[in-house]
Amino acid sequence: MALSTFHLREVLETESFYFLTTDWFDPSQKFETLHYGYGKFVLLLIRFTINFHSEDDKVIDLVKQLNNSAARYLYNAHSGFFEDFCKMLVSSMKELEVFFAVPKPHLSETTSSLKTNELVVVFIDFLVGILEMILHRRIPYFTSCVKDLIEDLQTQLKFLITFLGDTLLQPTEETKSLLTDIEALVNEVASFLYSFILKPITMETGMDLAISDFLKKIELLKMKIKDHCIMVSMMQSGLPTKTSMISVFVVDSLLNDLKDLMDQKADKIGGVKDQIRTIHDDLLYFRSFLREIEMQQLPKLEQVMMRIPDTAHEIEYIVNSFAPVWYLEIRLPHVMEKIKLIRMAFEEMKKNHENGILANSPSQQVSLQAEKPLISEEIMVGFEDEAKNIKEQLCGEAKQLKVISISGMSGIGKTTLAKKLYNDPSIVYHFDKRAWCVISQTYQKRNILIDILRSLNDFNRDVIINMKDELLAEEIYKSLKERRYLIVIDNIWNIEFWYDLKRFFPSDRTRSRILFTTQLKDLGQEASCHSMIYPLPFLSKAECWDLLRQKVFPKGHCPPELQEIGKQIAKNCHGLPIVVVVIAAVLANMEMKKSKWQKIERSLNSHINKDPSKCMDILELSYNYLPMHLKPCFLYLGVFQEDKEIPARKLMSLWISEGFIEKKQHKSVEIVAEEYLTDLIDRNLLIVAKKRSDGGIKACRIHDLMRDICLRIVEKENFLKVIKDQLPIHEQHRYHRLYIHSILPSSRSFGLHIRSLFFRLSDPSSFIFSSLKFLKVWDLSTTDLKFYEYIMQIKLPFNLRYMAVPCILPSIESLEKLEFLYVDNKEPAEIPDVFLDMVNLRHLYFSGSAEFSESCRLRAAKDKNLPINNLQSVSFLFISDEKDEKILRRSPHLVRLKCKFTVFWDSSKNTFRHPVFDFLNELESLSLSFQRRYVSPVYQGYSFTSFPLNLKKLTLRNFDLIWKEMTVIGRLTNLEVLKLQHGSIEKQQWNTNEDEFQTLKFLELDGVPIAQWNASSDHFPSLERLVLRKCNHLNKIPSSLGYIPNLQMIEVHGGKNSLAESARQIETEQRDLENEELKVIITRSQFLRRILDNLERHSKQQLKTIF
C-alpha cells in the first residue's frame, strides 16, 4: 500500500510550526537561524529517503510513526501531543542524517537498478533543490556576495549533472577514481548543508568560506573531467535506453535549434560555431532523403536512418545543456565522428540501390493511397436480425423502463451496432431525450454524469464541469422526469456500476429505454427483470469477406486474381469484425498484388497456428505495416485515457510539438498533421467520434483492443512510461515521455532526458522541475488551483513547445520557442504584454476567455513597431477596446479566431463602434458573440458590412442582422459553414437571392426568430446539411431545398409541428424520386410529446384533423 505523509506535511508546512517549536530546541540558539525553513527541509529529506526504500525497511516505519504522531496532534490540538511529535522529530532527524549522502547501490531494489553515475546525479539534483530552498527562504538575510556564491555553486553542480548524464563511464580504474572524487565532493557539500540547516551556526558564519572552498574543489574536479574526456577516443552516450521508435522528423526541430544558435546566439558558442555548422549541414543532407527512403520501404536503409534521430537527441542534449565551451569543444567532435560513420554506411547502401532509391516518381503504394476516400464511414455487415429486434424493443409499446443488453466479446461490433441504432432517424424521432456515456474498467462516476448531462441539456460546458456531483445527478433526473428517453451505457463491466447509476433514471412509464453494451452476458439479466439480452454472434466466412471487400474496395470490385486469397484472409480473421477492418486497412495501403496479399495471409496463419485465440498478435500486424512516420503518432495515443474521446486538434498539436510531423514546402505542419490523422483513421487504427460542421475531424477514439496493442508496443519500445502510485527515479531516468496518472506526495520529479510530461493529478507541490530542462511538452492543466501560489513560482523549462496549464504563469516570458499554449482557466484571464514578444506562438487557447491587459494596450498605443507574430488560432478572446484591434493587426497569419466583443469608443472617429476583421486576409474561421450587457446607452447599433474575403466558416451569436448584412454574408465567395445563433433577422423574414451562398455546405439556425424563409435550390446549390434548432417561429422549410443535388441531411430540433412536417414532406418527395441519400432527423419538444401521448388512442386521420 502507498505510504502517506499527508499529516506530516500538514504540520511541517504550516506557518505556526515556525513558532511552536521554540520551546523544544536549545534556547541559546538563534531562533531564526535554526528553525526558519526547518519543516520544508525535513519534508525534502523524507521524500528523498522514501524513494530509496521498500515498505518493510526501518526508515519507512520511522516515517509512518512520525506521520501518525502528526495526525494525533492535528486531531486533538493538545500541547502534549505536539511535545511528543517534536521529540520524535528531533530523534528521527539524527537517524535520517545517515541518508544525507549519495545512496549506495545495495541500499534497496531501486538503488540496485541504477548505475553509480545515475545515483550521484539523483543526489546532486536533490542538493540543487535544497540550495533553491535556502535561497528562497533566506535571501532577505543574505548579502549579495553570499547569494552569488550559492547561485554559482548551483551552476557548478548542474554541470556535474550534465556530465554524468551525458557520459557512460567505462568500468576502468581511472573512471572509478573520477566517480569516487565526484561522490566525495558531493557528500561534503551535503554534510555542510545539513549542518547549516539543522545545527547551531550563525546566519553567514563560515558560509562564504565554505562555498568558496567547494567551488575551488569543483574547478580541480573539472580539470580531471577534461582529462578524462580527452582520454576517451569515442565517448559512448550515457543517455537512457532509447526507444527504437523515434520519428525521423525530430531532425527538423534540431535543425531549427542549431540555426537559431548560429544566427542569434553566436556569442554563447564561441569557438565551436564551425563544428555546429558542420553538424547542421550533415543533418540537412540526411533530411533531404528521409521521405524518399520511407516511400521506397527499404528496411536496411530505414535502420541506418533511424540512427539519425537518436544522434539528434544526443546533439540536442549537449548543445542545450549550458555546458562550458571547453566541454563542447571536446564533446562535439565525438558526435561528428558518429555522424560521419552513419553517412558512410548510408552512402554505401544508397549506392547499392541507386537505380530505384532516388527515383522522382512516387511508388505505386502512394498512388493507390491517394485514390482512397478522405474518411470512410463505419460499415456494418451482419447483425441484421439483431438490429431489427433491438429496434422493435426500443420503439415498442411497453411503458415500463426497459433494459436492453448487447453482449459479446471485445471487437465483435457491439458499439458499432449501438451507434447505428442510436443515430437511426426513427429512433431519434421516437425519444424526447437521448444520451450516450462510456464506462471503462476504471469507473469514474463524475465523468459519466457530466457526459450524460451534456448530451441531455444545453448547459454550458464550464457550468457543468463546475457542478458538484449531487447537483449533476439532480439535473439529470429533472431533465428525464416524465420524458421518453434513451440512455446508452457503452462498455459496462460491473453490475455495481448500474446499481450506482440507476437511481438517476426515473421510471415514469413513458416507454423509456436503457441500452447496454457489455462483454458480460449475464449483466443484462441482473440489471432488470424487464431486460432483453442480445448476444452478438461471430461473423460468418461470407460476412467476413463481404466486410473486408467493402473496406478495401469501397468504390469498386475486387480483381479476380485477389478474390481467393482475399477470402482466405477473411476466413483467418475468425469472424471478429475489428480484426477484419484492421487487416483490410493493411491491405488497402499496399500494392494490389497477389504476392503482397499472400505475405499477409502467411503472417495471419503463423499467429493462428501458434494460438488460434491470439487476436492481439494479429492486430499488431497493423502496426508493423505502418509507414515509419505514422508509428510514433500511433504510439502517442497511449497518453490518452481509456474510453475517452481524443480532441483532434490537441492530438495534432502534441505531434507537432514532439517533432513527429514532416515540414513540407507550401504546406503548413497543421495540414500535414491532419493528413497523418486521416491516414490513421483510414487504416482503422482510430475511429472518428465527432466531426466538425465543415466535415473535418473534431474528436476521435481508439478501440479498447487497439489501445491494448498501443500500450503493449509502448512498453516494449520504451516509447512512453505510464506511472501510477509510485514515481521511481530510475523509471524517470530511462524514458523520454512520462504520463503520471496518480502518484504519492512523497514522489519527486526527476529526469534529465524527459521530453514530455503529462499529469493527471491535482497536487504538483512535491515536484521540482529544475532538472527538466529538455522538456518540450508539458501538460499541467488538471492541477487544482488551490496550489496556485506554488504553480506561479515554477521556473519553466525554456525549451517548451507545448504547454497546458490552469493559469498564466509569470515565467512564461522565458519561453521563446513556445508554439502551443492552452490555458484551462475558470475565470476570465488577462493577457500580459510579454505575449506581444512571443513571436513563435502559433495557437493560443483560453477555455474561460481572456482579454488583453492594460499593459498590452498601453504598449500598443505607444509602440509603432510591435513585432509581427505567427499566431494561427486564438480562442476565446474578449475585445472591448480599439487598441485590441491594433494588437490583432500584428497577427496577419490568423486562420481561426473565436471571440466575443462589445462596442468601444473610437477616438479617431469620435464615436462608438464594434471591431472589424477585414484586415485578417488569411482568416478562414471566425466566431463572433456580441455581449449586449456592455452596450453603451449612446450606441445606435452595429452593422456587419465587411468580412475577411477568405472566410470559410462564420458563426454569429446574439446578433441583429438587416438584409444588407445578410447579402454581404451571402456573397462571401469561399463561405462553406454558416451558423446563426440566438439573434434576429429584419422583419422575421429571410429572402435569399441567386448570387448568394453559392459555396455554402452547412447552415445552422439556432434560436433565430424568423417566421418565413423564401429560398430555392438555386440559392444554396452546394448545401449538404441543414440544421434548425429552436426556430419556434418558422412555419416550414422551403420545399425546393429538397432538390439541392448535394443535400444529405436535414435536422429539425424543436419548433412547430408544421416545420417538422415540412421536413418529412421533403423526405417523402425525394424518396418518390428515388433519392435515398437524403436523411431527415427530427427531435420534438416535450410539449408536443405530451400532446401525442394523450392522443395516442386516436386514429391518424384524427391527428391530421387536429393539427
TrEMBL record:
<keyword id="KW-0963">Cytoplasm</keyword>
<dbReference type="GO" id="GO:0009626">
    <property type="term" value="P:plant-type hypersensitive response"/>
</dbReference>
<dbReference type="InterPro" id="IPR044974">
    <property type="entry name" value="Disease_R_plants"/>
</dbReference>
<dbReference type="Pfam" id="PF23559">
    <property type="entry name" value="WHD_DRP"/>
</dbReference>
<feature type="domain" description="NB-ARC">
    <location>
        <begin position="384"/>
        <end position="555"/>
    </location>
</feature>
<feature type="domain" description="Disease resistance R13L4/SHOC-2-like LRR">
    <location>
        <begin position="753"/>
        <end position="1055"/>
    </location>
</feature>
<dbReference type="InterPro" id="IPR055414">
    <property type="entry name" value="LRR_R13L4/SHOC2-like"/>
</dbReference>
<comment type="similarity">
    <text>Belongs to the disease resistance NB-LRR family.</text>
</comment>
<dbReference type="GO" id="GO:0005524">
    <property type="term" value="F:ATP binding"/>
</dbReference>
<dbReference type="InterPro" id="IPR032675">
    <property type="entry name" value="LRR_dom_sf"/>
</dbReference>
<keyword id="KW-0381">Hypersensitive response</keyword>
<dbReference type="Pfam" id="PF18052">
    <property type="entry name" value="Rx_N"/>
</dbReference>
<dbReference type="InterPro" id="IPR036388">
    <property type="entry name" value="WH-like_DNA-bd_sf"/>
</dbReference>
<dbReference type="GO" id="GO:0005737">
    <property type="term" value="C:cytoplasm"/>
</dbReference>
<keyword id="KW-0067">ATP-binding</keyword>
<dbReference type="InterPro" id="IPR058922">
    <property type="entry name" value="WHD_DRP"/>
</dbReference>
<keyword id="KW-0547">Nucleotide-binding</keyword>
<dbReference type="Pfam" id="PF00931">
    <property type="entry name" value="NB-ARC"/>
</dbReference>
<dbReference type="InterPro" id="IPR042197">
    <property type="entry name" value="Apaf_helical"/>
</dbReference>
<dbReference type="InterPro" id="IPR027417">
    <property type="entry name" value="P-loop_NTPase"/>
</dbReference>
<dbReference type="InterPro" id="IPR002182">
    <property type="entry name" value="NB-ARC"/>
</dbReference>
<feature type="domain" description="Disease resistance protein winged helix">
    <location>
        <begin position="639"/>
        <end position="709"/>
    </location>
</feature>
<protein>
    <submittedName>
        <fullName>Late blight resistance protein-like protein R1A-6</fullName>
    </submittedName>
</protein>
<keyword id="KW-0677">Repeat</keyword>
<dbReference type="GO" id="GO:0051607">
    <property type="term" value="P:defense response to virus"/>
</dbReference>
<comment type="function">
    <text>Confers resistance to late blight (Phytophthora infestans) races carrying the avirulence gene Avr1. Resistance proteins guard the plant against pathogens that contain an appropriate avirulence protein via an indirect interaction with this avirulence protein. That triggers a defense system including the hypersensitive response, which restricts the pathogen growth.</text>
</comment>
<keyword id="KW-0433">Leucine-rich repeat</keyword>
<dbReference type="Pfam" id="PF23598">
    <property type="entry name" value="LRR_14"/>
</dbReference>
<dbReference type="InterPro" id="IPR041118">
    <property type="entry name" value="Rx_N"/>
</dbReference>
<feature type="domain" description="Disease resistance N-terminal">
    <location>
        <begin position="250"/>
        <end position="323"/>
    </location>
</feature>
<dbReference type="InterPro" id="IPR038005">
    <property type="entry name" value="RX-like_CC"/>
</dbReference>
<keyword id="KW-0611">Plant defense</keyword>
